[in-house]
Amino acid sequence: NKARGIVLLSCSSLGEWVIEEPKNQAIPGNKGLVLKSPGRHHAIAAYLSTVYHFRDKPLCLQYEVHFQKGISCGGAYIKLLSHSDDLRLSQFSHTTPYTIMFGPDKCGSNYKVHFIFRHRNPLTGTYEEKHARQPEVDLTDYFKDRNPHLYTLNLHPDNTFEILIDQKQVQKGSLLKDMDPPVVPPREIEDPKDKKPPEWDDRRRIPDPTVAKPHDWDEEAPQLIADPTVQRPEGWMEEEEPFVPDPEAQPPHDWSVEMDGEWEAPLIANPACAEATGCGPWKPPMVPNPAYRGKWKAPMIDNPSYQGKWQPRMISNPAYFEDRQPFRMSPVGAVGFELWSLTEDVLFDNILLCDDLEMARHWTEDTWGQRKTPGILERLLLATTKRPWLWGLYVFTVGLPVILFVSLMWPEKRFGPPDEDYYYKKSDEPQPDSPQDPEDHTTLNDNGVKIKSGPRKREPKKAQKKSDLELKVITYFEG
Predict the structure, then answer these.
(1) Mind listing the pLDDT tens digit of every residue in the chain (479 residues)?
(2) What is d(CA 170, CA 136) in angstroms, rounded to the nearest whole number?
(3) Is 85 left (phi over 0), alpha (psi -120 to 50) or beta?
(4) Coil, helix or strand at residue 308
(5) Which of 41, 230, 300, 427 is least buried, going by the fewest C-beta atoms within 10 A?
């Protein structure tokens, strides 16, 4: 299905949308729909040229999301709006009925990919949201790496679904078994009128009624008592306070008794206690009371009258219904984004809604497939940006086998020209330097001219031309 008639709502309280290229352009000339206003609500929608009906063909909903500045808190999900004669995109808001809501959402430490559909109760005609459980994979990088990602929802007429990110499956399930709350309510429920009888004994264990508190058990004994072995130190002055008002202190000049109350001098250490071991009331330290036994409790025994945990009786659920085809959802008449985000520059691109999975595959190859997918080597190198210690692991993993391979395959390998003294094997004893082979000596040529010779220098390789170094890449993209 192709969307037509994009409606951009104009309201002073709504944020701005623009069509522009991404900050880091990967495909020349490619543009996307960009949410521009942080901390504002945004709404934009478009009618479908053909109303989509859930019958005997699958549904594929797919689009790209690019958090160009990361995301602190906000949603990037898309809504398939329910078709009706009352659908007015000029009034599109969070109250507009939708059939499916799908896409990423993040706030706080919660990273989610929503798949929610509104199910119609055949008994009451009311609608209730059904939520798919969250993927068990770690979604953090999809929100933090500031790269575009492809979100795909495939719905099948057999009531199964699958969710993919960057063409990798992260979740699959059944509309009948894996939604919360369940599409089909339980056949039986607990009777709300059934009450536990007053005589019902659901205590598994009880205090032993045959055991009495010992007569010498003192429950009033304190846990701590004053240490009877400690005496007040000599020189302790109980009649003196450890702190006294400062006699030299004066009230501030602007102090008003009527406004500020009675003035009190600050306290200082009592000079009379300077030579004393202590001042003020003396109290001995507290120690555990050997007579303390605490509150007496009878030992616990199995309750002979235990009747088990009481449960109300089960009755038929008056709200029970059967819906074996929850795939038959409300038809879709429009698509739209109705979002709030604290972070701007969220880009959306290549939105696809169709009922042909093969066509969706070709579409994906012509759009998402044009982006360069990092190979294994590139992914390993990218991993070192977050985990620098991987470099040591890489060197050890690659270097050690090479060294062992060379040592085992060529143990008798000799090094150097065979006509020289330093022609030797790795297993030979260390060779001394030859006194007749200095590094620097002078000789005469045929004309009697002295020639100074020394270690031969390695000739530099001829520089390659720039054209030899360039890698030519041909990119094909249909916008």
Answers:
(1) 444 445 555 454 589 999 999 988 777 788 999 999 999 999 999 999 999 999 999 999 999 999 999 999 999 999 999 999 999 999 999 999 999 999 999 988 899 999 999 999 999 999 999 999 999 999 999 999 999 999 999 999 999 999 999 999 999 999 999 999 999 999 999 999 999 999 999 999 999 999 999 999 999 999 999 999 999 999 999 999 999 999 999 999 889 988 889 999 999 999 999 989 999 999 999 999 999 999 999 999 999 999 999 999 999 999 999 999 999 999 999 999 999 999 999 999 999 999 999 999 999 999 898 875 555 676 676 667 657 777 788 787 887 788 777 777 776 655 556 665 555 555 556 656 555 554 555 555 555 555 555 555 445 544 444 444 333 333 333 33
(2) 8
(3) alpha
(4) coil
(5) 427
End-to-end CA distance of the chain: 17
In angstroms, the CA 19 to CA 28 distance is: 15
Do the beta carbons of residue 118 and residue 82 sit within 8 Å? yes
Alpha-carbon distance of 320 to 305, in angstroms, equals 38
d(CA 52, CA 82): 10
Q: Radius of gyration of the chain from Cα atoms?
A: 42
What does the angle CA 236 – CA 239 – CA 245 come to, to the nearest 5 degrees? 110
Backbone angle region of 280, left / alpha / beta, with phi > 0 → left and psi within -120 to 50 → alpha: left
Query: What residues contact 253, with CB distance under 8 A and at least 6 apart?
Result: none
Cα atoms in the Cβ-side hemisphere of radius 13 Å centred on 157: 9
Q: Phi-psi region for residue 189, left (φ > 0), alpha (ψ -120 to 50) or beta?
A: beta
Q: What span, in angstroms and rounded, lies between the C-alpha atoms of 27 and 240?
A: 88
Pair 118, 127: CB distance under 8 Å: yes
